[in-house]
Design goal:
The chain is an alpha/beta fold. It has helices spanning 30-41, 58-65, 81-91, 106-114, 127-138, 146-155, 162-172, 177-184, 188-202, 207-216; strands spanning 21-26, 46-52, 69-73, 96-101, 119-122, 143-144.
């Protein structure tokens, strides 16, 4: 599926039955969540059916409120937006998902696009553009910020295997090699080998540098 990278126009709300766009807002920063609710309340065709701040509440709220569009912060407590994306799609394939990020990483954008996200935007976009994006997504279009899409394509895919990614991700969370080994049912030696292989592929001199590189590119 192709995605729209143009500046979206602001379509007029469609009157009549089914014109309301039911929006579930998921944002853990209270100030931003409140501001977005205020913006949405000014639009005749948008109804915020719920506004929550924890990823753990999303699936139950989707079942309870039946939203048309979920405006979802990519970085959330408990489970992030990328982790929620396939769960939402499985729970209700009808729902459209718009991911927002204040510091979008190329790897995150690539993973979201590959995962079938309906929209991906930077949080600093103008309110008029956000409203237009929501309407376009509700109408069935995919709307990804063009600069984010370009950056994602320029950085390419991660060179790490799934196991190397998993090991490096756990190490990035502060776990020692024995702790990672226990979590993944591996030997500590195998974990150290995966970390060494990941560092070599990333051109890093040590584990800390490998974690920094992979994190900056959105690969873990």
């Amino acid at each position: 599926m192709s995605f729209d990278t143009t500046q979206p126009a602001l379509p007029a709300p469609v009157k009549g039955q089914g014109s309301q766009i039911r929006v579930l807002l998921v944002e853990d920063h209270v100030l931003l969540r409140t501001a977005l609710q205020a913006v949405f309340s000014l639009e005749a065709d948008i109804e915020v059916v719920a506004a929550i701040g924890d990823g753990a509440e999303v699936l139950s709220t989707v079942r309870r409120t039946a939203p048309d569009v979920i405006v979802l912060d990519i970085h959330l407590p408990t489970i992030d937006g990328l982790g929620l994306l396939p769960l939402i799609q499985a729970a209700d394939p009808r729902v459209k998902v718009l991911l927002l990020a204040s510091h979008p990483r190329p790897g995150d954008v690539r993973r979201a696009i590959q995962g079938g996200v309906d929209g991906f935007q930077h949080t600093d976009l103008a309110s008029e553009r956000l409203i237009a994006v929501i309407r376009k997504i509700r109408a069935g279009e995919r709307v990804v910020d063009p600069q984010l899409a370009i950056n994602a394509m320029m950085h390419g895919e991660s060179p790490l295997t799934a196991r190397e990614t998993e090991v490096l991700f756990l190490a990035a969370g502060g776990r020692s090699a024995p702790e990672v080994a226990r979590a993944l049912h591996l030997s500590p030696g195998a974990v150290r080998n995966y970390l060494s292989a990941a560092s070599a592929k990333l051109g890093a001199s040590n584990r800390s540098e490998a974690i920094r590189i992979a994190t900056d590119k959105g690969w873990i």
